Amino acid sequence: MNEKIDGSIGRRSPRGLRQFFEAISLMANSPWGNGPKGGGDGDGSGDGKKPGPRNPWVTPDPIDINRGRKPRGPSALDELLRKGRGGFGGGGSGGGSGQFNLGDSAKFWKWAVLGVALLWVIFSSFHIVPPEKEGVVTRLGSYSRTVGPGVKLTWPAPIERVRMEDVRAIRTMAVGSPNATDENFVLTRDQSIVDLAYEVRWSVRDPEFFFFQLADPEGTIREVAESAMRATVANFDLVQAIGPGRVEIEAQVQQRMQELLDQYRAGVMIQGIAIRQVDPPSQVDEAFKEVTAARQERESAINLARAYEQQVLERARGDTAAFDKIYEQYKLAPGVTRQRLYYETMENVLSNVDKTIVEARGVTPYLPLNEVQKRIPATPPAAATKGGE
């Protein structure tokens, strides 16, 4: 009688352990290793007279006890296959039938599908919205609500989906470029043409309108920026657009853009406009530089004239203030003030002319030697040497 091997290795009987190790030793050698002597239990390759290899894939038939041969159990490969079938519900180590159980397999797949569905519900229903973003929830493709930062719960996909948008990031859009070959021409009030390059800084204010109101939000922002810039520059002269009017142009363009985008319900906030380049067309660049240089010279002459004007006015105001003070003193003491004014006037006049002082009789008059030496022209050294010869 054959003895079955227990499903747990730790609970095998001594005879089962012996058969188990014999099977392992046979498999460790060649799979067609030599069987027991006698050839009576072979697979047909032995003829009963010579020992032949035993087929490891065929379970040997029971051996007759009367012939003195011990009964042999199932092969190791059969045991492995039987255990594998038992793991899928088709028979186990407890002596099952060895056939695949369709009822247990259906139950296994049912639980597997339920597990996958549960994971899908969990991962598609819980959403983490970062602090700098807001989430727009759509139900079957249409807008449902807007959620703020945090952990949010929705219906599982595809019933509800969450689309996140950064509402704190400031984005930059360049219109025209100083290094681009295409020029962005804008007409000024005095019928001049300038090449403008500027940047638009904007951010998302309302994600609902930003996603669902405009088909192409960035393209709309670009077109609105160009329209607002042309309408604003048309109110400024060329000189103002190039120099002093830039700040005012930027402020007006920002205001115009925000009004238009609010009318479109774009959900966008314009943060600012920055003009990077204001140049004339390349065809008239040289002539424009000459005109600019002439205008700068004119401005410089005007500034010098105004500075001289201010200097003369300040001097006149100072003289007027001094005269008013002298007049106040003259009203208090006319004689003394008149004498003082006479002396000061004569001092100012005589300090710049040559003087001759005549003394009384018997007194040597003053001889201004320093003044006489100044009036004598210096004789060149070469002329003096020639005269000496």
Set down the secondary structure blueprint.
Blueprint (H helix, E strand, L loop, with lengths): L13 H15 L47 H12 L14 H24 E4 L3 E7 L2 E6 L2 E4 L6 E7 L4 E5 L9 E3 L5 E12 L2 H6 L4 H17 L4 H5 L3 H19 L3 E12 L5 H48 L1 H17 L18 H7 L5 H8 L1
Helix pairs in contact: 5-7, 8-9
* Cα end-to-end separation: 165 Å
Radius of gyration based on Cα positions? 57 Å
What is the number of strand segments? 9
Query: Which bin fits the share of residues in helices?
Result: 40-55%
**Category from helices, strands and their pairing:** alpha+beta
Number of helices: 11
Going by CATH, the homologous superfamily of one domain would be Band 7 domain
Beta-strand level of the residues, as a percent range? 15-25%
Low-confidence stretches: 1-12, 30-50, 91-98
Q: Given this structure, which CATH class of one domain is correct?
A: Alpha Beta
Architecture per CATH nomenclature, i.e. the level-2 architecture of one domain: 2-Layer Sandwich
- CATH fold-level assignment of one domain: Tetrahydropterin Synthase, Chain A
Biggest beta sheet attributes: 4 strands, antiparallel
The H/E string reads HHHEEEEEEEEHHHHEHHHH
Give the overall average pLDDT. 75
Q: What is the general shape?
A: elongated
Any overview of this molecule?
Strands 6, 7, 8 and 9 form a four-stranded antiparallel sheet that branches. The chain is of the alpha+beta class. The longest helix has 48 residues, at 285-332. Helices cover 46% and strands 15% of the residues. Among the domains are: 9-100, no CATH class; 102-169, no CATH class; 171-280, 2-Layer Sandwich (Tetrahydropterin Synthase, Chain A).
